[in-house]
Structure to design on (79 residues):
């Protein structure tokens, strides 16, 4: 299942996101979206978790939690 993580701090790294979601299950892909001109975070990322139950667990546990002073939003990514 592919999850969209929004409202990330510009300083949050892809590795930090991967670690955060890995506490809820296997993460096969993590993609922090970067601005092409500045190479800085755009404040959102995609996380791929193959086990739907683990992904739902991560979504429930992490939605509206604070990461680096920002309240993140997690939802299922549109196809």
């Amino acid at each position: 299942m592919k999850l969209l993580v929004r409202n990330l701090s510009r300083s949050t790294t892809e590795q930090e996101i991967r670690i955060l979601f890995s506490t809820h299950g296997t993460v096969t892909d993590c993609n922090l979206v970067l601005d092409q001109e500045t190479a800085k975070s755009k404040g959102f990322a995609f996380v791929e978790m193959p086990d739907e139950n683990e992904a739902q667990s991560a979504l429930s546990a992490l939605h509206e939690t604070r990461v680096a002073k920002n309240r993140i939003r997690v939802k299922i990514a549109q196809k």
Notes: The first strand starts at residue 2 and ends at 6. The chain is about 25% helix and 35% strand.
